[in-house]
């Protein structure tokens, strides 16, 4: 209604529920024969545990997007050239992935913030490994830092912290339209195919933090994520 575009359709998807992700993907694939662009944009910074037993930030920010991308990948390939854009964050520089405890809240004084940073590191590594696996398919992918955007990301922050965060966000953060620029750049700009798997900020290439360039860590995260979302069983066999 706001856009006046009758081609815009709303479909419910709750990334904190793997069942919801599967239901959405199934409904989408039945209804829509074409898919040329997937932007994994959702993100939360709240604590808590999902119905699947994972920490809320890590599931919503990484595992839900990982499963969604895998379920839609065949359609993206059949409609190639196509692109996947994964919205990460400069917060990935503070990420520390514990592969033996992936999806569980990290220890420390600020577990929710650390969990968010861990999920953002996972986003950058997801794009890196996805690009490796999609070489030669005409499906490319990009990780992006949108900038510090004044959205509702901090709506679940502790009450004592909100008086500090809210004025800062209004004074120094960009609005949502400005925050979408880099995502749209990677989604639409011609000639980016050779940069598949790379990290962008402010519509330009940028080298991410060293752990986000670790190909062995990217592969290990991929394999662990497959098991956690039920795409691979404990023996390592595909489980679709």
From TrEMBL:
SUPFAM superfamilies: NAD(P)-binding Rossmann-fold domains. InterPro entries: NAD(P)-bd_dom_sf, SDR_fam. It comes from the Eukaryota. The keyword DNA repair does not apply. One of its GO terms (molecular function) is oxidoreductase activity. Pfam families: adh_short. Keywords: Oxidoreductase. Belongs to the short-chain dehydrogenases/reductases (SDR) family. This is DHR13 reductase. It comes from Psilopogon haemacephalus (coppersmith barbet).
